[in-house]
Amino acid sequence: MLHMVKKYENFLDMVIYQIYPKSFKDTNGDGIGDIQGIIEKLDYLQDLGVNAIWLCPCYKSPGHDNGYDISDYRCIAPEYGTMEDMYCLIAEMRKRGMKLIMDLVPNHTSNEHEWFIRSRKGEEKYRDYYYWFDKPQNDWGASFGGSAWQYDDEREQYYLHSYAVQQPDLNWTNPAVVKEIQDVINYWVNLGVDGFRIDVIDQISKNFDGQNSFGPHLHEYIHAMFGRDNVKDIFTVGECWAGDIDEIRRHIDYDRGELSTLFQFDHLEAGRVGKFTPGEKNLKKVRDKIVMWQLKLQDFGLIHSLFTDNHDNAPFISRVADDHSLRYESATCVAAMFYLLRGIPFIYQGQEIGITTSSYDSMASFNDLECFNAYQEFLKAGCTEKEALNKVNFGSRDNARRPFAWDNSRYAGFSTHEPWLPIASRADEINLAIDQQAEKSVFRFYRDLLRLRREEPALRRGVTDVISAEEDNFFIFTRTLDDRVFTVVCNFEQPSAIEDSKGFGSEILHNYLDRKAGNTAFRPYEIAVFVSNHQ
Ligand code: GLC
Q: Residues 26, 65, 239, 507: which is the catalytic one?
């Protein structure tokens, strides 16, 4: 195993909570979450045990892709508040010793960004800020459907958009574009942010003769962003949809000025076939994927980002486990499986109360352009409206973006006004107030788990070894630092019996409340954590 560069190691102490600002907490009664809402909930987040926030885009944007179409990188969208609110958030976080990670979207802007408006006019300075050609350069499709090339009447040329038509791709081969993004990074770092999550980073360098990712200049561009002295110490996590371990390995190198870590998504494909069709529920497959990445990244001395949910995917437990009668057990089991490994836990808002997918009987309850495009495709492919709606109910990104359910009041305590997106269909049953009062509380389990992680260096810095075998229907791993050894046992769907656990030491965390210490029979999704001191 390679040793991790010392200054990287502090990153292993972070526990990052991802906030989707539009849906977290509304304080001004317009049905849209805001920065003041985040400030109001900082104590809640601290109580949960997180010490950093990744804030999804809250910049000025026409909102075709909910903020990932940015029209001004230096300005907060008015619906979220003002720059004063932002300064206040940074100061309040500082006070609590929390770090702020902003979302950086360098692959594309909004078509309402000044750069694009001036570029489509053909203004000298901005002419080559985007990819303009007289004809499409290839047959790339856009991620939200249709061709990635759009004819523009004003410029009388085609431009590239890897996502929606309203999201033109920036031309990174133009040094002026690189400089613009460097300036944006500097701007936020100077305001006090501690790092960035970088949107679709694998796509910023293009190879028009190949796939739309991992182009030939990718590392040069990453280096241009983060290899500079003033930003070398910040935390960076790149969103990376493809790539094998060797490719990934080239992306994570702090000293070379690349990334601190990245998200890769292998394990998220569990429980589905494509995004909108349910697949086999199988935690074993999830285990095998994360084990593979955990051990390889550890061997290379790199940081693993530990996550199951985000704003682009319907809640994980609904796909891979039982989100009805064993919802608490499923949510807590998945948390133990991921967040006690070596790496940085990323918790998406609502996971800590065990949110699930929703179900609606009309497309009027949805907002995301991805699911509207997909719905049309399903109809074209011969699905009935009901079948198409079922698929959307299963896979829509809106499932993850429903307003946070704080309590049982009219709009789930999120707002006093009808929210921008209907609240989750199970919000009466799954909300923070109910969860905190429940005997089986997902929140309390998360809090206990994070406290343990915080108090025990072995759970942050320790080495991971996997004990269970591939054929086992459970997952057992250890975390060791010096002579302190933690053993984590996570059982899956079926009851299982493990061999004697006496050697594991004493039990310090479990999810089934009536568990008897030392019991070797594990019920569905039962977990237990043991600790011992080896001489
Ligand atoms: C990323 C974001 C997603 C967005 C897309 C285009 O995948 O996570 O929400 O739609 O990039 O910016």
A: 239
For the Cβ of 26 lying below 6 angstroms from any atom of ligand 1, the answer is no
The number of helices, as runs of H, and strands, as runs of E, in the chain is 17, 22
Ligand 1 pocket, residue 65 CB under 6 Å: yes
Pull the structure tokens for residue 475.
Answer: 């997952």
Asked if residues 181 and 225 have their Cβ atoms less than 8 Å apart, the reply is: yes
**pLDDT above 80: residue 409:** yes
Place of tokens 């790496």: 343
288 catalytic residue (yes or no): no
Residues 206, 262, 159, CA angle at the centre, nearest 5°?
25
Does residue 450 sit in helix, strand or coil? helix
pLDDT single digits (tens) 464-484: 999 999 999 999 999 999 999
User: Which domains does the chain possess?
Assistant: 12-108+173-362+399-444 (3.20.20.80), 114-160 (3.90.400.10), 363-398 (no CATH), 461-533 (2.60.40.1180)
- Asked if residue 448 has its Cβ within 6 Å of ligand 1, the reply is no
C-alpha 432: how far from chain center: 21
329 tagged catalytic:
no
Indicate the residue type of 27: T
**Structure token pair of residue 3:** 């040793």
> Could you tell me what percentage of the chain is helix, strand and coil, using 3-state DSSP and rounding each to the nearest 5?
35, 20, 45
> Which runs of consecutive H residues, i.e. helices, occur in 96-168?
114-120
